[in-house]
Amino acid sequence: MALRLVVNETCCSGCRACQVACAEAHENAFSVALARLRVEKRDAEGIDRPVVCHFCADAPCVAACPTGALSQRADGVLLLDAARCEGCSLCIEACTYEALRLHPRTDKPLSCDLCEGEPACVAACVTGALKLEEQK
Questions:
Q1: Mean pLDDT in the chain?
Q2: Is the CB of residue 59 less than 8 Å from the CB of residue 77?
Q3: Which of 3, 58, 61, 120 is the most exposed place for a label (fewest CB within 10 A)?
Q4: Residues 15, 121: contact at Cβ < 8 Å?
Q5: pTM confidence score
Q6: Could you give the CA distance from residue 136 to residue 57 in angstroms, rounded to a whole number?
Q7: Mean pLDDT in residue range 69-87
């Protein structure tokens, strides 16, 4: 069963609890810079919008990786072989949804792994802006 994160931007309050929970779950740190998702402020539209991986079927980020360090499981979740990654950022440039970014210390891409089916971001989202659903 493939899962994906679904965003309801009309519910997002911009609190960034999702980012803090993600960083704590993956890095044991309370830093939004270490989260595998980000909240984009759109002041002109008056909304905040979580930006998450879409687990693309033919992921352009994977195709752009010149070393093969980035791959994809059958369910769409990205896998990183950090030893092979050169931190070139080509995967980040190729991401259609601007969901990838570099880790500020390691210069390796930060990618969502859905926390093994129990995403910390979804659990932390009190407004219901983030949900986990079976991919269709």
A1: 94
A2: no
A3: 58
A4: no
A5: 0.91
A6: 12
A7: 94
